[in-house]
Structures are given as structure tokens and as C-alpha cells.
Design goal:
Its cofactor is heme. One of its GO terms (molecular function) is heme binding. Pfam families: p450. This protein is α+β, with helices and mostly antiparallel strands. It has one domain: Cytochrome P450 (Cytochrome p450, Orthogonal Bundle), CATH 1.10.630.10. The chain contains 22 helices and 13 strands. The chain has a four-stranded mixed β-sheet with strand order 3-4-9-6. Helix 8 runs antiparallel to helix 9, helix 16 crosses helix 19 and helix 16 packs across helix 22. The longest helix has 32 residues. It starts with a helix and ends with a strand. About 4% of the residues have low confidence.
Length: 533
């Protein structure tokens, strides 16, 4: 009996090891070079470690470098990784591409084969989760959510929230004045995060008035971008079923390790806000017909094309012939608002932080920008039309995002059908494809010999066709909130730079130390804000 048990255990162990070795050797068997990492985990120890941002490591892996030597008077060169390579994270396989033409093929031309996004185990199953947001959703479900939500980010809708964004900008200015009155440095990263959460709270959660620097949700939102979930995501890469089991256990028995932050509070807070708005709209006959914020816009949202535009592009057979509601469900509204809180909080604050850092280190650009602001924004109020005239500011923001594509993990897709890309590269269903954004954005072959330099003027003329700009994504899944992000940045920088100039101080990190996994961020952006004469 003991022999049978021992044999069964050994057979199980050998079977399990064989399973993981099969996945780990995937790219070896397909003749694709790349970092191998370790059996079972692959390169999880690198890609799930935010101490050195994984997408900067991917940039390094993608460099075309050679081992070169002479042997018997013959010269040999061996390419290490180069522009196309693959790696594994547990059982997940990822192909990295650095050629703009192949990126365009994956993200645009073959969108029907790459409509899914690379997700981690914490996101759950986008096909089954009724709470799946637009970021997670795929196939026809994604198309439906995108189509219904798009009017929310039109110029007409954004014009309506301009006043709210300006109020938040002026509130942050008041805090800046209080903190800098005695010449102290302030951490602009923290200040920008307070600003972006206040904006999104007021336009997506029905928040009344400012809660800047006293918002109880702040630490919970910020914790999402920390490294507290790193180990869980690594477990999910190796065995997604283990994460499902862990989620069930937490829901059933509560958290095993008490923490000061709880990201689930974000959903609960938004849920209360949406329910409150539904009740207000149903009970108050005098409730304004014009939408007051994103809550109203989503509650009013509907699309006349959703049921009719199925035959031309069948994104997912599972949803093609299903009865599709033209309105968002309550869970979907909560999901979209939660998504915009999470995405809008960190990305816009980081873009503002990197812009501040670059302006400080390039005072001639800062002076040129201030001259434009003085010329185009002469009144105390900055209007929606004023923002559209700030062309050089837009160049500054784009150039910042070229050098610091902080949300590059979003530039990933999942292959939904076996296909071929580029010059005969076979991609099997289930393989993830990632654009090497940091490498593409600083490639001298694409951007010229000054590719690593901060030159906002390069955006004063339209980019060449080969200059692929990926900071907001590419193709049908390009970031829906791009115009809102630009609007927030323009409004706040216009108010700050008309009154102050950014200067470094003793606390300023030069160069910045970059960390993070979901986004790439500086540890701090300490600055002096010096009043202009």
C-alpha cells in the first residue's frame, strides 16, 4: 500500500513538473529568444517586482546587442534578444514587439485577432464577471461598453465639467500657497494625486465640494498602485485557480492579514454614490435635465448602433446574437466610475509630475511655456476655449509622455485566434503580445539622433508616419479618457505656471528614482514653487 501511495505521489510530482516545464520551454520550442528566468515562475521575479519597473527592464531586453569575437580568423556575432523576443510568467506567455509596423498590425489591422487585453489573475474572468469594466472587457461586451460610454468624453460633455476642474485647480493653488509661504519644498507628486482624486470624485462620484487633503478614500486608491498585491499576482501567473480560491476565502472568512488600506472600499463608495443619484433622479421632479456629472451621463447613456453593428465585425461569437441592452446596468455604471477613479487618479498625476520634473530641468522650455500662458490666458478664469489655444503646452505634455510612457502595461493584447504577424511570426491563441513602448519612444531610427532629449518643438509639426506614439494606446482600444486627461493637465498647469516657477531644492531627486509595476512613477517630486515677479 505504501508503495502505491509513494508511486502516486511521485507520478503527481513528475506530472506537475512536466506541466510547468512544458509552459516554461514554450519560446525555446518556438525558436524565439528571450530571458528564460526559472522553471515554474519564468521571469515573475522581475516582471512583478516594482523596485525596478519591469517595462524599463523590457526596454533593456529589447536592445539590439551582440556578442562579438574572432575565432580562427573568422568574425562571429550573436544577437542576444533584439526587437522581438518572448518570456514566460508562470504559465503565461508574452511576445514583445518593437517594430512600429508590427505594432500597428497587432493593435489596428488585426484587431479582430487581438481584441483582448493582457490581464492579471486579480482581474478575474472578463467573460463572466458582471462587474467587468471597459478596461477588462473584451469582444462584443467591450464594444458595447465603449460605444455607450464614448459620448461621456465628447468635447460637449467635457465643456460641462470645465468649471469643476478649474475649482479643483484653484483649491490646489490655495494649498500650495499655504505650504510655500515660508519657502518650503513640497512633493508635487502628492499634491497632484490629491488634485486628480478630487477632480474624479466630483465628476464621477457625485462628491459635493472639495475633499482635498482630507479625502478618506485617498490611501485606499493609492494602495492599488503599491506592491502589496505583488505576491498574489505572481501566484495567479503560476496558477490562476489559486487566486480564485484565495478570493473566495477572503470573501468567506475575511482578510487573513489586517491591512490599513482596502481597495474594495472604492467600489462600495461608488456604489453608494450611484444608488443615491438614482434615488435623487427618481424622487425629485425638479432634478436638472442637463447631466451634472459622469454619474448622470452614464445613467443617461445609450447607443442606437449597438444592436445593429454586429454583422460587420463579429468580435466574439458568444455575444453576437445575444439580446443587447442599450443602457448600462447599475453594476456597469459603478464599474466605469470605479475604473475612471483608479485610472484617472494615478496616470494624470504622474504625467503632471514628469512634466514638472522636465520643466524644472529645462528652464528655457518653462519660460517659453509661461510666455504662451501669459499671452493666451489673460483673465483670471481659464476657459475651455483658452485651453484649446495652448499649443505649446500640448507639445510639452506629449513630449513628456514620449519620454515617460508611464502606463505602458496597457499597450498589451491577447491573441484570440491563431494568426501570423510581421514576417511570418506565428502567434497562437492565448499568447499575450506587448508593445515595447519605452524602446519605441526613444528609438533614434524613429525619432532621430535626439530621441533621448526633451524637445517639445518636435510636436509643432505632425509626426512622421513611422513615429508611433503609444502613451494613450493605439487602435480601437485607445484610452477613452485621453481628452479629459489633457484637459486636467492644461487647466492645472495654466493656473500654477502663471503664478509660480518650478525650481529644484535640497530634497529634489536628480535623477528621479523610478519604481512601480502597474504604472512607472517617481518616488517623489520635491520642488520649490517660486512666485513670479
Amino acid at each position: 500500500m505504501s508503495f502505491i501511495i509513494l508511486s502516486s505521489v511521485l507520478t503527481g510530482i513528475i506530472g506537475l513538473l512536466s506541466y510547468f516545464l512544458y509552459h516554461w520551454s514554450y519560446w525555446i520550442r518556438h525558436g524565439i529568444s528571450g530571458p528564460r528566468g526559472y522553471p515554474v515562475v519564468g521571469v515573475c521575479n522581475i516582471t512583478y517586482n516594482g523596485d525596478y519597473p519591469p517595462y524599463l527592464r523590457i526596454k533593456e531586453w529589447g536592445k539590439v546587442s551582440y556578442l562579438s569575437f574572432e575565432f580562427f580568423f573568422k568574425h562571429y556575432e550573436f544577437q542576444i534578444y533584439g526587437p522581438i523576443f518572448g518570456f514566460t510568467e508562470g504559465i503565461k506567455k508574452t511576445l514583445v514587439i518593437s517594430d512600429p509596423e508590427i505594432v500597428n498590425e497587432v493593435f489596428v489591422k488585426q484587431f479582430d485577432n487581438f481584441y483582448g487585453r493582457k490581464l492579471n489573475a486579480l482581474h478575474g474572468d472578463p467573460e463572466k464577471d458582471k462587474k467587468a469594466s471597459m478596461f477588462m472587457a473584451q469582444g462584443f461586451r467591450w464594444k458595447r461598453l465603449r460605444t455607450i460610454s464614448s459620448p461621456t468624453f465628447s468635447n460637449n460633455s467635457l465643456r460641462k465639467v470645465t468649471g469643476t476642474i478649474e475649482e479643483c485647480s484653484l483649491e490646489l493653488l490655495r494649498h500650495i500657497e499655504n505650504q510655500t509661504s515660508d519657502g518650503q519644498q513640497i512633493d508635487m507628486l502628492h499634491f497632484y494625486q490629491e488634485f486628480t482624486l478630487d477632480v474624479i470624485g466630483r465628476i464621477a462620484m457625485g462628491q459635493i465640494g472639495s475633499q482635498m487633503f482630507q479625502n478618506p478614500l485617498f490611501p485606499h486608491v493609492r494602495s492599488i498602485f503599491g506592491e502589496s498585491r505583488q505576491k498574489i499576482m505572481m501566484i495567479g501567473a503560476v496558477s490562476p485557480a489559486m487566486v480564485d480560491l484565495l478570493k473566495w476565502a477572503i470573501q468567506k472568512f475575511g482578510r487573513f492579514i489586517p491591512t490599513k488600506t482596502d481597495p474594495s472600499l472604492i467600489w462600495k463608495t461608488v456604489e453608494k454614490a450611484v444608488q443615491k443619484r438614482i434615488e435623487e433622479r427618481s424622487k425629485d421632479e425638479n432634478y436638472p435635465k442637463e447631466p451634472q456629472d459622469f454619474n448622470d451621463l452614464f445613467l443617461d447613456a445609450k447607443s442606437d448602433e449597438v444592436e445593429n453593428d454586429i454583422s460587420s465585425k463579429d468580435y466574439s461569437l458568444k455575444y453576437s446574437h445575444a439580446k443587447i441592452s442599450k443602457r448600462l446596468t447599475k453594476d456597469e455604471i459603478i464599474s466605469q466610475c470605479t475604473l475612471f477613479i483608479i485610472a484617472g487618479f494615478d496616470t494624470t498625476a504622474l504625467s503632471l509630475s514628469f512634466t514638472t520634473y522636465l520643466l524644472t530641468n529645462h528652464p528655457e522650455v518653462q519660460r517659453k511655456l509661461q510666455a504662451e500662458l501669459d499671452r493666451e490666458c489673460k483673465d483670471s478664469e481659464v476657459t475651455f476655449d483658452n485651453l484649446s489655444k495652448l499649443k505649446y503646452l500640448e507639445c510639452v505634455m506629449k513630449e513628456t509622455l514620449r519620454l515617460y510612457p508611464l502606463a505602458s502595461p496597457a499597450n498589451s493584447r491577447t491573441c484570440m485566434n491563431d494568426t501570423v504577424i510581421g514576417d511570418g511570426i506565428r502567434v497562437e491563441k492565448g499568447v499575450h503580445v506587448v508593445a515595447n513602448t519605452w524602446a519605441i519612444h526613444t528609438d533614434p531610427k524613429i525619432w532621430g539622433d535626439n530621441a533621448n532629449e526633451f524637445k517639445p518643438e518636435r510636436w509643432e509639426s505632425p509626426p512622421n508616419s513611422h513615429q508611433t506614439f503609444l502613451s494613450f494606446g493605439l487602435g480601437p482600444r485607445q484610452c477613452i479618457g485621453m481628452r479629459l486627461a489633457y484637459m486636467e493637465e492644461k487647466m492645472l498647469l495654466a493656473h500654477i505656471l502663471r503664478k509660480y516657477s518650478f525650481e529644484t531644492g535640497s530634497k529634489t531627486e536628480l535623477p528621479m528614482k523610478l519604481v512601480g509595476r502597474a504604472t512607472t512613477q517617481p518616488t517623489s517630486v520635491w520642488m520649490h514653487l517660486v512666485a513670479r515677479e
